Amino acid sequence: MVDKWVGPYPVEELIGWGDFASVCRTHGPDGTPLVLKVADQSGQDRRTFAWSVRPARAVQYHTGTTFIGGRLDPDAVQQMFRAEAVMLRSAAWRRLPRLIDEHTTDGGLPVLVMEELTAPWSLELAPIEDFARILDACADLQWAGRTEFFLSSPSMSSWAPTASSCSSIPGINSVRSLRSAR
Amino acid sequence: MFIDPWHQFGAFAAFGTLTPEYNPNPHLDAAERDVCSTAVMVYQRLTGDFPWATPDWRAMALSHLSAMADARTPSSRDARLTPALPAVAGWAKLVFGFMVADLSSGASYIISDRARSCRPQ
To answer: Which of A5, A22, A161, B11 would bridge with A40, disulfide CB 3.0–4.6 Å?
Structure first.
């Protein structure tokens, strides 16, 4: 898939993949377990449309309904990884894995070196309170995205969530009730 | 696992978060996508079903969640969920209620009356 080394990081076991990246284990110079998130769109071909894995896509696949997606050109991939790096640097101090380093493969693919999560996670077995944490992590990323990409840009500084986007659904406030149920 | 900090989509791409895996409507704003996707994940966690493709499934999901929120029905999947179930199901039901209303008003959800099984296979 990629080189045996990315900078000083050895490419070890492949532990996951998605539409736009594969994730491999690696370790830092001091032996700290880390992961490499490598730009790789071949996962779009390898993924199965299993209901249990990709329910929304499975519906689209089985019914022929349209869905926006598809491959990105190299510039867009670079932009995507750059954006993710910026947002993780801004947001990862709370609930998200830390970004350790950024590199590129010999072929020019962007690579993020990240803290390894210590425990595997599955939807089927997740403690219910994890879903509140997911929403919290999403909120962290939302905030980082606005801060890093919008509020810092003169052309975007006037952007603000619409009233409908913030108040029309039972969202973050309702997380409190979910937490209190723990 | 589910968080995709940059999902290419529309003007709000820079802070899209959850992947589209569980999002029944890709046209929602980013914050709405997060909430709706999480509610779909919660429903799948509680029941094993994916709730959105047909009117029957949506009605069934709301019925399931109502029963769980009222503590009339335990989770079919995991007894450990029981203490928090009414609050969690009640929250998911609120979100689903929004999505059904949104759909009824013409929103473009990933649905089809031709879809088949609701169960993960």
So the answer is: A22
Distance between CA atoms of residues B110 and A156, nearest Å: 30
Q: Please judge whether A128 and B35 are an interchain contact, meaning their C-beta atoms are less than 8 angstroms apart.
A: no
Q: How far does A34 lie from chain B, in Å, by closest CA?
A: 15
Is A83 within 8 Å of B95 when comparing Cβ atoms? no
Q: So what's the ipTM on this one?
A: 0.75
Query: What are the structure tokens assigned to A15, written together?
Result: 């532990």
> What is residue B18's DSSP assignment?
B
Dist CA A158 CA A154 (whole Å): 8
Rounded to whole angstroms, the Cα distance separating A124 from B121 reads: 13
pTM of the predicted structure, to 2 decimals: 0.69
The per-residue pLDDT for range B39-69, each reduced to its tens digit, is 888 888 888 776 666 777 788 888 888 988 8
Number of alpha helices (DSSP H) and beta strands (DSSP E) in chain A: 6, 7
